[in-house]
Design brief:
Elements: H1 2-23, E1 29-31, H2 33-43, H3 64-75, H4 88-101, H5 108-111, H6 116-122, H7 132-150, H8 154-159, H9 165-175, E2 182-185, E3 188-191, H10 194-206, H11 229-235, E4 239-241, H12 243-250, H13 260-284, H14 290-302
Antiparallel strand pairs: 1-4, 2-3
Bound molecules: ligand 56B.
Amino acid sequence: MAMAAALAGMAMDEVRASAAWVAARSSHVTVDSEAIERVADNMHDKIPKIEWDFEGIHYFDDGPLTVQYLFVLDALNFCFWPDKDLNYDDLASGLKAALENDKSVFDADRLQKYTGPELRKLLNWPRPLPLEDERVRLLHEVGYELERSFGGKASNLVKSCEKSASMLVATITSHFPGFRDHSVYKGHQVFFYKRAQIFAADLFGAFKGQGYGDFHDITSITIFADYIVPAVLRELGVLIYHSKLATMIDSESEIAAGSEEEVELRACSIYAVEKMRDLIRLKSGKQVLTVELDLWLWAYGVQRPSLQHHRTLSIYY
Ligand SMILES: Nc1nc2c(c(CN[C@H]3C=C[C@H](O)[C@@H]3O)cn2[C@@H]2O[C@H](COP(=O)(O)O)[C@@H](O)[C@H]2O)c(=O)[nH]1
């Protein structure tokens, strides 16, 4: 266990350190320190406290089934934009309705058998989902590995992590290859772990820091580098996109997964929000959690559909 705990401690340190490494070499995205200062000055005492389930779209029963639901949800929490009508809330509320209708719908043996059309039916979605084959493959992987190593239950996976969010992220990424969200940038491995970290944050939010959501190291989590938060940071002036990248995003051109542009967008977002958090702490003397900053930025972004975001086909976000 000592070895597991030591490795676990590194998971989010690696995310932070590699994001800073990219930000120091970035050529398509600039992090504007003065803008971060401005946001911290203006906002430090008025960061809105967003309720975790502010949209009222998630399943919650205060027990292990909620954990299973959240793990399945975050296994599929990526790439909605290729279907202009599909959003995260369709996934969250579709899975919720499926579970309310049939409590065994996310049993590990059943997760290993879903087909694309069955998943669509489960979500009550009328046409193929973006990256549907990958979604199905990831569901199978989740079912198989939960059964093999955790008695079929995501709640056992969480219990095995000794109330440590970083141990949870390390355990998930070592057992479930589909959660190993990383890239190689200028020869260096860069870690994001977006869906693994968001699962820890979802537990923390849903269970209000108690029970399955009780983590002594919740402060170690970074933002979840998706396609909404970078767009919000750009709107706030915190990220400046150089002209070629700005044109690609504004003209809705696809940005290749693993390209320098994509890695810089994600890594600079993590780096900038960490700086923002440090400054807010300095100015207000108060500890602000990155999960709270993330939820504020994300909620701001999804309420502004006119914000242009980058478009990358990815299973990670
Ligand atoms: N950084 C960050 N990214 C997040 C979330 C969430 C949802 N978290 C739930 C947890 C508590 C709240 O109740 C939220 O509802 C989804 N995403 C990402 O957004 C994108 C989807 O956008 P659109 O296509 O417009 O639906 C996609 O990349 C998805 O992975 C978050 O919290 N933070």
